[in-house]
Amino acid sequence: MNEKNRIKILVVEDDPDMMEQMKIYLESEDYAVVAASTQKEAEPLIKPGAFSAAVLDLMMENPDSGFVLSHKIKKMDPKIPVVIVTSVTKETGYYFDKAHDPKSWIKADAIIHKELRFEQLKAELRRLMGAGERHAS
Amino acid sequence: MPPDPAAVHALDVLIVDDEAGMRAGAGRSLEGFTVDLPDFGETVAFTVRSASTGEEALAQLTAKSPDILLLDYKLPDMTGIDVLAAAPGAGDFLTIMITAFASLEVAVTATKRGAFDFLAKPFTPEELRATVSKAARSVYLQRKARRLEEEKRQVRFEFISVLAHELKSPLAAVEGYLHLMRERLKGPELGAYDPMVERSVTRIAGMRKLVMDLLDLTRLESGKKKRAIESVDLVKAAGLALENVAALAESRKVTVELKAPASLAIGADAGEMDMILSNLLTNAVKYNREGGRAVLELVPAEGGATVRCSDTGIGMTEEELAKLFGEFVRMKNEHTRNIDGSGLGLSILKKVVKLYGGEIKVSSKYGEGTTFELTLKDAPVPAGTAG
After folding, report:
1. Is the reported ipTM for this assembly greater than 0.90?
2. Of A39, B10, B56, B319, which one has the greatest count of Cβ atoms within 10 A?
3. How far is CA B57 from the centre of its chain?
4. Quick one: pLDDT band at residue B213, thresholds 50, 70, 90?
5. Domains in chain B, ordered, with CATH?
6. What is the largest CA-CA distance in chain B?
7. A122 shares contact with chain B (CB less than 8 Å)
8. How far apart are CA B330 and CA B335, in angstroms?
């Protein structure tokens, strides 16, 4: 598959090592990675046709950066699958903004933990994109 | 009209008495009555409702728990004690028992049921106000204490959650690289994995630093850290701190300069002085630009010293500056991406400086640099070690 036909995935991750690993794995799966390491850097990348799926870190320069980006992506195109990756301890019940139950407004399609196996991410992406989406762009 | 409605705290008073005159009189006495709490800059006012029987009182208590209950002992259908025994959520309100005659027995039983105070009939409006005012203070203080306790729990909870996050990130990074290596994703050539090994070593070192900083912080907070206060020459201490930061400075091509008198003695713990100076210098080098400058200045001051550390670094925006002293706060922007840190350095700095009755002033300009200025007061040198 040549560069042009690869499915583009927006990856926003502020940890340079996680970004590096994400790239290695996704590229080995023949995805093309559109990378941004801050919420600020990612915002101008949210444009129609720029990517077919997004993998977002939750905590970046703001504790809810991933949520905000997800919201913006979904506002632009609700069909784009968004996976939020977090190492925030869901088990401690720590929410960033107690006034909101995150799930009620984030509208991410999946929230997975950072110590995820990349197989899980790949499976999640495959599930969310569906077979039909493979012809995109 | 109260001058500042935000600072007025309204307490709900329920008056239970079968005499209509008593209810009306008590209501009038509390109408417009306020209690000032100058320590908190707040004023307490009262809203009053009433009930004429025990049954009515219980219905009102069930509908909405008051803050203060003025309860007549002798009610037509039951005693005030019966009301307290049957009241839902007892303990959420303060009870002032009204008795027609001072009976020790009633007093003892009512106290057992949690009555806060007594009013003997007949009483004057002043007596009523004095008793209610005492109860109001008590209610207010109790709530304030509960709120503070709650806030403290919340802060601790957030600290631990963020700490877990800070420890998990490097673990996840190293674990991820190990998986990549195990799967030989970069092919069979061992050299291809060198960058991954390098990064793993760096992340683990960062994690160790975090754990060490956390221990420092815990020792400072517990107050159990052994302190050896002696006469410390700050200039000498700065020289050592400078040596320790030299390698880092060289790798970033930052020149570090010391402006100080020949010597500057201060009563202090040498380890704590090193924490302060190293912390300032490390930040000034780390958050600098390539080819930049860091200047550490020591100035004698009345009963202590002033330490100033400025850099020609990336600086901070006002927004970043406001967040600076939070625990685990690390400025995240395009300039700081590759700068390692535990996010605890400034929390530690602040706590150490506080031990010397000092304060920290920070001024910063985005893109131009940051200056930290702190004042340290001599810690009293214990007798026998002073010289």
Report:
1. no
2. A39
3. 41
4. confident
5. 5-149 (3.40.50.2300), 227-377 (3.30.565.10)
6. 98
7. no
8. 12
